[in-house]
C-alpha cells in the first residue's frame, strides 16, 4: 500500500515535471498561467490533468482542437512513478529517501530538457544545491552518519572539480551546465558510498562513449557532432545508485 502511494505521488510529480520541461527552457513561470493547450490555448480542466489516465481518455488529443498531445507527457509521468518506487525499494524507509526522490525528479526533467535543447537550465540546477544540501544534512542527522556527510562533500567536490577541469581543457566537448550538474550528482552518490561515487562517475563516460560509437558506426553522427552529455551523467548516476556498491566490490575482488 505504501509503495502504491509512492507511485501515485510519483505520477503527480511527473505531471508537474511536464510543466517544468515545457516552460523552464523558455524562461516562463511554472506556476502561472494555468495549463493550456499549446495549439488552441484552451484551458486544461482538472479531469484532463489526471496523470496518464487523461491522456488515454482523450486518446492523445486536445479535447477542443483535436491537436495531438505528445506521448512524452504520460511517459514522463509513468517513468517518474516507477523510479520513485524503485528509490524506496532500494533505500527502504530511511531518512535519505527524500534526497534521492528529489534528485530523481530533477534528473528526469533535466534529461528530457537536455535531449530537446542541449541545455541544463540554471533555474533547475542552481536552486537544487541548497535543497540537496538541506536534505542530505537532515539525512545525515537522522541516520547519525557524519561520515556519509563527509563523503557527500568530497563527492560533490571531486565530480565538480573533474568536470570543471575537462570543461577548461576542452570547452567544445563539455559545457558548464554539465559541471554544475556534476556537483549535485557527486553529493548524492558520495552520500551512499565510495563505490557508488566511483561507478556512477565512470558509468557516465562508459554509457556516453558506447552511444557515441554506435552513432558513428551507423553514420548518424560525425566526430564533431554535438551530443548532450547530461543524460549520460544522469544515467551513470542511476547505475551508481542502483548497483554501484556491488559492482565496485566485485571489481575489487577481481584485482
TrEMBL record:
Boundaries of every Prepilin peptidase A24 N-terminal domain copy: 8-90
Primary localization: membrane
Sorted UniProt keywords: Cell inner membrane, Cell membrane, Hydrolase, Membrane, Methyltransferase, Multifunctional enzyme, Protease, Transferase, Transmembrane, Transmembrane helix
Annotated GO CC locations: plasma membrane
GO molecular function per UniProt: aspartic-type endopeptidase activity; methyltransferase activity
Reaction catalyzed: Typically cleaves a -Gly-|-Phe- bond to release an N-terminal, basic peptide of 5-8 residues from type IV prepilin, and then N-methylates the new N-terminal amino group, the methyl donor being S-adenosyl-L-methionine
Prepilin type IV endopeptidase peptidase domain sequence ranges: 103-213
Taxonomic superkingdom: Bacteria
Transmembrane segments: 74-93, 99-116, 123-142, 148-170, 200-218, 230-252
The protein's name in its UniProt record: Prepilin leader peptidase/N-methyltransferase
